[in-house]
Design goal:
By secondary structure, the chain is mainly alpha-helical. The chain is built from five helices and no strands. The chain is elongated, with a radius of gyration of 16 Å.
């Protein structure tokens, strides 16, 4: 069990119809993706062809910030507003899709882009699952 899941399980109030496993998985995927995107952007900056990777770097950094923010919001359970949560998770899914698509363009040449694309796809799927459970 992850620390994220342990913290959700330790929440003192009833979470109602929230699927705790899906919430925990999405939260974990957001933080993992944020780290992967940050690492990929940094690795892109270290490449000799850095100018050709400008869009990848920007997409990585945008995705990292959106994922980190989503993870933080998903960690706050008291008084949460599902409308805001849904909008943020949808934005995270969109950012992850865009970042995965951009990194996949460079994955044959750069292992860090392949790793990042995989993390983005996992987060995209986790966000989709959480959105489906928040109906």
């Amino acid at each position: 069990m992850t620390h994220i899941r342990s913290m959700i399980d330790a929440y003192p109030k009833d979470l109602g119809d929230i699927d705790v496993a899906t919430l925990s998985e999405c939260n974990s995927a957001c933080y993992e993706c944020a780290q992967s995107c940050t690492g990929c952007a940094d690795a892109c900056l270290g490449e000799d062809m850095v100018a050709e990777l400008a869009k990848c770097i920007r997409t990585d950094l945008d995705c990292a910030d959106i994922c980190a923010t989503t993870g933080k919001v998903l960690s706050r359970l008291t008084g949460s507003d599902r409308t805001i949560t849904r909008a943020l998770v949808e934005a995270c899914r969109t950012a992850c899709k865009a970042c995965a698509e951009e990194c996949e363009k460079h994955a044959d040449m750069h292992d860090h882009c392949q790793i990042c694309a995989e993390a983005c796809r996992r987060c995209e799927q986790a966000c989709g699952a959480l959105l489906a459970s928040l109906t």
